[in-house]
Write a structure and sequence with these properties.
5% strand, mainly alpha, Multidrug-efflux Transporter Regulator, Chain: A, Domain 2, DNA-bd_dom_put_sf, single chain, HTH merR-type domain-containing protein, two-stranded antiparallel ribbon
Length: 79
């Protein structure tokens, strides 16, 4: 990830990213720990928070939708 591709308004903390994605902040943290979403600016976990790129959040949502569609298609083939 290159910081130069982000505008300040495109950087979201976990709460803002959750609002943008329509999920809870704990889901954003889960996506991060599972490697689906990487912070554009890593925080230290104590005094500074991770900042996520809006387009990275959108990409994570798209990836999850793709995975769900694949699972649904596999389920339909098996039925």
């Amino acid at each position: 990830m290159q910081l130069a591709r982000y505008y300040p308004d495109d950087l979201l903390n976990a709460d803002q990213a959750a609002d943008h994605a329509g999920v809870r902040p704990s889901t954003i943290r889960q996506w991060h720990h599972r490697g689906l979403l990487h912070p554009a600016i890593p925080g230290d976990g104590r005094t500074t928070r991770h900042l996520y790129g809006r387009q990275d959040v959108d990409a994570a949502i798209a990836e999850l939708a793709r995975r769900e569609a694949e699972r649904e298609a596999a389920w339909q083939r098996a039925a």
